[in-house]
Amino acid sequence: MKLPVTRIQRFSTHDGAGVRTVVFLKGCPLRCAWCHNPETQRMGREMMYAAGKCIGCRACEAACPRGAHLFSNGAHVYDRSACALCMACADACPTQALTPAAQEMEAEEMISIALRDRAFYGREGGITLSGGEPTAQGEAAVKLLAMAKAAGMTTAMETCGHFAPALVAPLAGTVDEFLWDVKDTDPARHKRYVGVDNAQILRNLRALDQYEVRIVLRCILVRGVNLNTAHARAVRELFASLRHGVRVDLLPYHPFGSQKGEQLGREGGGRTDWIPTREEVEDFRREAGL
Amino acid sequence: MEFYTCFDRKRPVRLDDATRAFAWESLHGKYGQEAVRNGAIAMDGEEGFAALPPLAQYDLCIRRIAERAPLRLVPGEHICGAATLGAAMTHHVPATLGGEPVFYSVSHVTLGFDHVLTLGMDGIAQEVRSCLNNPDFTPEQRALDESLLSAIESMRIWHGRYLEAIGETQPEMRARLKRVPFAPAQDFRQALQSLWFTFAFVRLCGNWPGIGRIDQMLGKYLEADLKRGAITLEEAREWLAHFFIKGCEWIEKDTPVGSGDAQHYQNLVLAGVDEEGKEVANEVTYLILDVVEELGISDFPITVRVNPRTPERLLTRVAQVMRHGGGVLAVYNEDLILDSLAQHGYPLKEARRFANDGCWEVQIPGRTNFIYLPLDALRALLIDTLHLDGEPAHFDSMAQLYAAYDAAMRRVVEDACDRTLRDRLDGDGNFRKKQPCSVVSLLEEGCAQRGRSYHEGGPIYTVVSPHIGGAPDVGNSLYAIDRLVFQEKRVGFDELMRVLQRNWEGAEALRQYALNRITYYGNDCDEADAYTVRVLNDFAGMTKKYDGGPIRFPTGVSTFGRQIEWAPFRAATPSGRRKGDVLSGNASPTPGTDAQGATAVIRSFCKADLKRQVTGAALDVKLHLSAVRGEEGVAALIALIRGFVALGGYFMQLDVMDAEALRAAQRDPETYKTLSVRVSGWNARFVTLDKQWQDMVIARTAQEI
Asked: For chain A, does the N or the C end have fewer beta carbons within 10 angstroms?
């Protein structure tokens, strides 16, 4: 069983209990305007090109069967429309200016990488699935989590919550802790900035809350979008209504995702006016009763 | 008055204001300045001095220091005694003839301070006198023991001057000092005064000893005092704080920059088992952690002996202190070290006494003469094996290349050991005469009994430890050659050698490939780590032929800061580094090569059979402060320590740092005077490091999330 992995991050201390290994999977049903990991949004292959790392050695030009890499006056032009994403150029590039956004990896390999840090997990630590949206992999994500549990690790999943209701029960049986994104509590704004409204997400949350799981709500704070009293109060109510809510984490927007967006050849993102101030975050925290 | 922390919460305040103010002025160089002004005692007026034999010259120097060194009594201090002569900070006995110091002093040693507490200096003098009754003693042996007694008498003079200076103003301090350090300590306060006064005298005479297992030495006194209600924990904390604050007396206001100012080797060791195998950690252990947590004092770098049974309470406190940065705390993997020492031939009870040498090399305190020999393995590969400084060598296979490197390194090791043997022993295998150092010999078991000094085979053990430096860069270089030349055939062997001689000129794509497309040591990649592991393990066997002689040659792994001095004498490396780049320190990954985080670094390190590195192998792990935020941060640090122990690590310096703050300190040193960093075996206030050292600390990747 192979899955597209953008990154495996070891010694992660803030993505679930204890020391954890976080596996980032590619593919997400949402299109958040502020996405911090844009390389994990789309399913399928993507090439990342970091122009700053190019030394003009032309290894890519030589490797490309379709002429997607051109050099004129020493400047490297990457023509994405001509690129078939065969990754031959990435393989040839000495500086890693060109890299595939993800690589297909066997589930067993992911488990074995995560198990390398078993000595550091204690009773709490283990594996965290993230993304993208892990459930975009459907049953495969559940299988991966079950394998992790069978290997003796605790499991956590970072999720946007937008998935088929049929996954609720299998996930409840394989995930110890959900890190559940609350993008926004206003359905209209949710649709505008994320691409879908939050009805399905809330239904899934309520359904999961019927099981013995731990749920951490994680709220992205975007200034000028959801950084307001009404949202804070709604978060407070939502959390209070959960039977298995553990805590609420606030995640102030940061523009670092924009660099990766550029490397994917996308426009937009990286809005500094979206960054909340420390005071605004503290105000929100108070309003949300945290 | 805020003591620097890189953590997002302030340091706790438990000590009283006067103690905190005392710490502040000491940390900002008040007493160090005084010492520098005091300089040294001039021996020029001593009639016939030049004609005296060295031992008599030494005795006289110590006598005059004791008689004339300025005394310092700070109002409000709980314990007295001060090393007030600045020349001691230059590694000399602070006595000069014609403006030049007469004798070097001793460091890398931890003395038997425990005997002073239990026997008192008078008890020790009695032991020396009974040794003098040995009818087989030669005149030379007698002279040595007479010199030990002379050192005690000089100390008595200095002690008498303090008693007189205290006068009737502080009757309690005077009463304590009347008893210690000449008689055994009876309670906690006396024990602390005895330990400090002796330590201060040894330092006054120029030496930089480690303290050793302070919680083991003081714990029983505090326990008894607490039981009979003679002291409270709060009072004991204040007293220990004074000990630590007085230890900052050599901090100067404006230290000339170099490799840092706080490296006077007054390291100490906390917790771990005693000779009977019982855990030592006691209230003194926890109070010391309170003190360094509050004041951030880094002049006593602390190593905590950790084993799988270490109490959670202790590890939690260690992690909480670590979060503030400064690198004050490091950890030993106790069980592995005990195995290592036993394997080297120390009886278990003896091994359990281990502490460090005032840096982090393991030794049996109070019984060991110790030095280490820093050896550059990367030079052995690049110059001695590949001959990149002349006509390059050619190898047809990795097996051939490795065998040649191994032989070259063995020559380096044997040359160093043979040189040591020639230097230390005469043709009959007897120790040669060296400069006198009776103040140190006095507190080293074996010296009085054998009538030989610390440097002349007096202590029970004489240990000369070859230390390998640059092993990760040798491993990385070998792995890069394996990949580039033999596995992937991207470049021919001879062509690569020419490229390296050109310092990678004209081969940027290949260099970038070597830098970016090959995974190196420190990422928990078995294939990449294998070469470094092999280099370390094979090195450990290279001193085997010296077993059984009067000098022990156990191996260890370190560079301390030598990766800086060595850089110009190396060449460009096959792993893509240019000539002159500052490379790996200790057994840590080369800056910029570790991308998988702290757990991967620890796992890579622990793949080597570290128990064969008897005097130690150091790993520096620098964590970005974001990794240790909040309560999860404490759990993460504990997890790292527990994992390090479980995986078979030896010594780990965990430093929490914020590269941004360090850069800010480079720009604005005045504001960051007390910001300390762990350099290697020592801590330094960051602003006292020169630019190259500062950059090295910043470059050593903080393991960011």
From this structure: N
Provide mean pLDDT across the span A251-275. Answer: 84
The CATH 3.30.70.20 domain(s) of chain A lie at: 47-99
Whether B420 is in a domain gets the answer yes
Tell whether B493 is covered by a domain. Answer: yes
Nearest chain A residue to B599 by CA: give it: A11
Instruction: Output the pTM of the full model.
Output: 0.94
| Structural domain that includes position B409 | 368-594
Q: How far is B525 from chain A (nearest CA, A)?
A: 10
> Which residue carries 């490297």 as its tokens?
A76
Structure confidence at residue B358 (pLDDT)? 76
**B8 lies within 8 A of chain A by CB:** no
Q: What is the CATH number of domain A47-99?
A: 3.30.70.20
**Cross-chain residue pair A125–B510, CB shorter than 8 Å:** no
- Res. B125 pLDDT band, cuts 50 70 90: very high
- Written as six digits, the tokens of A115 are 């198990």
Tokens read off for B662:
């360090």
Count of the separate structural domains present in chain B: 1
Option in B516, B627, B635 nearest A18 (CB): B635
> Candidates 2.60.40.290, 3.20.20.70, 3.40.50.2300, 3.40.50.720; correct CATH number of A2-44+102-287?
3.20.20.70
Query: In this predicted model, what pLDDT tens digit does every residue of B309-351 receive, in sequence order?
Result: 999 999 999 999 999 988 889 999 999 999 999 999 999 999 9
Dist CA A165 CA A205 (whole Å): 10
Task: Give me the interface pTM, i.e. the ipTM.
Answer: 0.94
Q: Which of residues 187-226 of B touch A (CB under 8 A)?
A: none
The answer to whether the bond into B135 is cis (omega within 30° of 0) is: no
The torsion of the CA quartet B102, B107, B112, B113, rounded to 10 degrees, works out to 80
Those residues whose C-beta lies under 8 Å from the C-beta of residue B293, and which sit 6 or more positions away, are: B11, B12, B317, B320, B321, B324
Six token digits for residue B500 = 């390296």
Distance CA A155, CA A17 (A): 9
B490/A contact by beta carbon, under 8 A = no
**Torsion angle of alpha carbons A159, A160, A164, A166, nearest 10°?**
40
